[in-house]
Amino acid sequence: MNRSGSTDPFIRNKREAIIAARSDKLGAKFAERAPRHDLEGSFPFENFDDLRESGYLKLTVPVSYGGEGASVYEMVLAQERLARGDGSTALAVGWHIGQILQLRLSGAWPKPLFERLCKDVVTEGVVINELASEPATGSPSRGGRPETTARSVPGGWRISGHKTFSTLSPILKQFVVTAGIEHSEKVGAFLVRSGPGVKVEETWNTMGMRATGSHDVLLEDVFVPEAEVIRGIDYEKPTNPVPTEGILLHIPACYMGIAYAARKFAIDFALHHQPNSLTVPIAELPNIQRHIAQIEVDYLTARSYLYQTADRWDNEVENRAALKTELGLAKYVVTNAALRIVDRAMRIVGGLSLSRTLPLERMYRDVRAGLHNPPMDDIVLTNLAHRAISEAEENRD
């Protein structure tokens, strides 16, 4: 037992215990709805009603604006526990709470605009996301210039373009759009509100994470007033930007939660499943125990590194820029461990694990999406190699 009275070593105090308990309660509800939304590929509106009513949507909103002011560690804890119930809902809402936390850390928005957003989240349960991916550019993490265009007009801008992977699109009343500024090499960011010229095209029909509502969003000559421009033609990148990459730990937290759910299901199954050819449950078999042990190695190692990295991010404020490689490594370690955990869980359960009446086949499909969330494995490995080579060269000199 730790100070919070919890058996989870990563719940360190009463506040964290309350955050975890809320996520556990919500996750239990979402687990019951997940099979239907996965089968239909439908958006879980009722889950977001529950998130709104529980106060979850204001988790990372500053306390001064009526939110809970959660740290990166607390966000990771909340997200991991939520994903134990439904990975799609956790990943989707993770972009919202992560975006709010990023804005809180960076101060990148004009203060009146951010204050209004926080008020909308707290009082109305508004959710937000940044739409940056496009058909021609793929993931924005690869650095492609958006083909979406912003054209200066009296009083503001006109935005036209096509965004993909627009998670939360069925319920976005406002969202950030990146766009290339016409007659310029610069890229701007604009707060767009749903309305005339904004169309959600329901294209999201994927193998996994089927209920995130990550459809295409089409923008046709959408007007954005000057007061809602986040970065415009006069924007100059800061020479020493405030590090905000820690917010991306909401991604591995989600896949860690899915892995936990698969682990729990498989171990429970092994404890109770006894074919008539055996005199004991399959949990007594050496081969099954070996699979369970290998799951535990991955689970304990990955989860420890995830929480250690989140804790370092929160506490090593002056060292955050140098932690970028560790953040990428946390995502790499967790998502790849989660893949192995779910795979071994299916081996324990056997052929039944392929049945849609059980949750493992959905978890297997969902967990694979982690490979395609940023940062990608190849970038993480390249960064690790560059750092090791650089350190070796410095030591040689």
Automatic annotation (TrEMBL):
Acyl-CoA dehydrogenase/oxidase N-terminal domain location: 28-100
Cofactor or coenzyme needed: FAD
MF-aspect GO terms: acyl-CoA dehydrogenase activity; flavin adenine dinucleotide binding
Key words, A-Z: FAD, Flavoprotein, Oxidoreductase
Domain Acyl-CoA dehydrogenase/oxidase C-terminal residues, every copy: 255-369
Organism domain of life: Bacteria
Acyl-CoA oxidase/dehydrogenase middle domain: residues covered: 132-222
InterPro entries: Acyl-CoA_Oxase/DH_mid-dom, Acyl-CoA_Oxase/DH_mid-dom_sf, AcylCo_DH-like_C, AcylCo_DH/oxidase_C, AcylCoA_DH/ox_N, AcylCoA_DH/ox_N_sf, AcylCoA_DH/oxidase_NM_dom_sf
Disordered as annotated region, ranges: 133-156
Keyword Flavoprotein: yes
Recorded family membership: Belongs to the acyl-CoA dehydrogenase family.
PANTHER family (UniProt xref): ACYL-COA DEHYDROGENASE, ACYL-COA DEHYDROGENASE YDBM-RELATED
Name recorded for this polypeptide: Acyl-CoA dehydrogenase
